[in-house]
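re: ur question from yesterday

yeah so i grabbed the chain u mentioned. its 124 aa long if i counted rite. heres the sequnce exactly as i have it in my notes:
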Amino acid sequence: QVQVVESGGGLVQAGGSLRLSCVASGLTFADYTMGWFRQAPGKERDGIVCIRPFGTNVVYADSVRGRITISRDNAKNTVYLQMNSLKLEDTAMYFCAARRSVGCSGQESDFTYWGQGTQVTVSS
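ran it thru and got these structure tokens back, copy pasting raw so excuse formatting
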């Protein structure tokens, strides 16, 4: 049974940093492209960034470009999202998802397995 579990969210002041983690189990992690998505209150879930099995990545959200770093440790079945210079508008539920492909995508429908999300709240 595949499980995807995010952690690392929380309350942070504007300008601060957070590192989100996502552990995927029950699958061959190195076969999967991993993506981070977020959903702000009242808005649709949008793709932020994805990382291919061997580490190359694509950023989809212009609003976070230059402020985020995605990485993965295939030995630990874990993908990380480092977020810096956080802004109020980064407040959202952040989701991790897995796609059995070597191709990146920012589309929800391209991902098979999803976590429950971790809340990030940025305060002024």
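noticed a couple things. The chain is about 0% helix and 50% strand. also The longest strand covers residues 18-25.
anyway ttyl
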